[in-house]
Amino acid sequence: MGGASEDDNAMKWFLEQANGGDVLVLRATGADGYNDYFFSGLGINVNSVETIVCNNANTGNDAYVINKINQAEAIWFAGGNQWTYISYWRNSLVNQAINQAIEERNIVIGGTSAGMAIQGKYYFSAENGTVTSTTATLNPYANTVTVDSTSFLQNDILQDVITDTHFDNPDRKGRLVSFLARIYSDYGVSGYAIACDEYTAVCIDSAGQGRVFGGFPSYDDNAYFIQVNCEVTNPDPEVCSPGNALTWNHNGEAVKAFKVKGNATGSNIFDLNLWESSSDGTWYNWSVVNGVFQESVGAESICQGLSINHQMEEPKVRIYPNPAKDEFTISVGSEFVGKHYKIIDQFGRIDKAGIIDSERHQVFVVGIERGIYNLTIDNQHFKKVIIN
Q1: Interval 167-223: pLDDT, tens
Q2: Dist. CA 112–CA 10, nearest whole Å
């Protein structure tokens, strides 16, 4: 849910998935306002509702919190600051218990605002505060553009997805394109995104069907389903590097976005298995040229069934983290083990060389000057490495 007041119909859908069980609200600030709203305000029968305000990092390993997670059939993450949730819980026993509940008991989870922002495998952590579209497009590696992939919540259906919220207030389209550009450049992944306006929710069932709830036609409530344009042969951003304005253009069609209205019945549906819609909506082309976001009406790309739930070819060579500081890992297929690699600067000078000794080969770059370098393997160019 994209933030602001909850959509009652979406919340009813959420509670119905608990099958009359126990609902747990986890939040880092605030009070217990969800208790009455969930328990008696929506007319959906549940056994109990409890809110736990986790106001310090010690709650990440708190036995009481873990016990309540183990008993819950539904967990709702409230709004606030997503970095607080991440810094308190990531790699904690609470984090482990939540993921076990998802995987082993198939509980329903959800969240609004910051609680939505933490749902995907990739997420904007807000570790250094929030970021505007203008800042993110003018420098996708600005200190505030903190796009993370460190394991947190493990939702299979959101494996290659990043989420964004409050999408209409203020406009956040440019920053989301910057997030996707970072995911592509840093991790070699053609990512996906789900974004919600305020008062709007996407409810994804166990079959991977996302229903969009909101106040349309009385209100202009929208959800967006965004993907790197699979019809572009080489979709690399033209310019995505520290200190430079983003250009991800490809004739104005670098990214495809489907905008769909949220209504009271959630009748507009987007299939996250095929990453396509069976409902009315509008496809747009999104791009950024020299830091300026551009949008035009477009058409759905024909992706030949490639989706987040289909087996996609793993990139043969990946580099992470990228940008790197002291070291990075070259991730390769077995056919590259034993091959010679070089890290070459913009003048063609070799700054580092060696032999790839495993499918996860570490390269130490302490002392190498900041800049953009090329990785070659057996003299074939593969990736750009950013060292800062």
Answers
A1: 998 889 999 999 999 999 988 889 999 999 999 999 999 888 999 999 999 999 999
A2: 11
Give the number of other Cβ atoms within 10 Å of residue 100's Cβ. 15
Spell out the residues 6+ positions from residue 172 whose beta carbon is closer than 8 angstroms to its own.
Answer: 133, 164, 166, 195
Query: Cα-flanking dihedrals φ and ψ of residue 329, to 5°?
Result: -115, 135
One-letter amino acid at 156 equals D
Contact between 58 and 118 under an 8 Å Cβ cutoff? The reply is no
Q: Token pair for residue 353?
A: 């060389």
Q: What dotted CATH number matches 317-387?
A: 2.60.40
- Residue 281 main-chain phi, psi, to 5 deg: 180, -175
> Which phi and psi angles does 367 have, rounded to 5°?
95, -15
**H-helix or E-strand spanning residue 102:** helix 93-105
- Reported pTM: 0.81
Share of the chain above pLDDT 90, in %: 75
Rg (the chain; Cα; Å)? 22
Q: Identify whether the C-beta of residue 189 lies closer than 8 Å to the C-beta of residue 151.
A: no
Task: Pick 233 or 383 by higher pLDDT.
Answer: 233
Report in angstroms the alpha-carbon separations of 193 from 107, 125, 250: 23, 15, 19
Locus of tokens 């996609």: 312
- Could you write out the DSSP letters of every residue in 30-54? S-STHHHHHHTSS----SEEEEEE-
State whether the Cα torsion 188-189-195-201 is positive or negative: negative
For residue 252, which of 281, 286, 225 has the smallest C-alpha distance?
286
How far apart (Å, rounded) are the C-alpha atoms in residues 150 and 123?
A: 9
Length of the chain: 388
Torsion of CA 142, 255, 77, 130, to 10 degrees: 20
Name the helix (H) or strand (E) containing 138: helix 133-138
**Distance in angstroms (rounded) separating the CA atoms of residues 261 and 146:** 29
